[in-house]
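Narrative of activities, Objective 1.

The group set out to show that a structural description can be obtained from nothing but a protein's sequence at a throughput compatible with the screening campaign. Below is one input-output pair from the validation batch, recorded exactly as produced.
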Amino acid sequence: MARRPNRQAHDNQESELVDKLVSINRVAKVVKGGRRFGFAALVVVGDTKGRVGYGAGKAREVPEAIRKATEQAKRRMIRVPIRDGHTLHHDVTGRFGAGRVILRAAPAGTGIIAGGPMRAVFETVGIHDIVTKSMGSANPYNMVKATFNALENLNSPRMVATRRSKKVSDLLAATPKAEAEAESAPAPEETADG
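Output recorded for this entry:
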């Protein structure tokens, strides 16, 4: 007899998700009798442990638009590598349309230095220390998409090591700091033959 998938574990995973409403717009559709008004919502969903997604939804009522956006965000989740559980592994830039963002890793205690739409992404993904700058478009859709473009380009040492078929310790041993220490160490004495 085949076992059924554990539905309770799936429900627990769903309940851990945090969602944030980034923006809500009233939109109009022009029809034969005049204008038909609706609402467009942009929502970011994450588990505060490295998974995050965004979604957009339109409906005649606000709650329905938010529900549609949340469902889309849950389907589009990506995994983000986080260093020491609080910041990025390295600085990265992201682009989407006219939006351009720069994300910089920050030491513990810095906090989230980011504007509205970007702040919602970092709070839901679980990053606590980051410095960001948005250049270009201030449109929340473009800012969120540019932020996701940057997060998708992030690499952790483990990902780089896997790609190069090396161990993480080999990569970290080859850092400039380690090379400088190796150069400053005294060279072994050579013995002359003959």
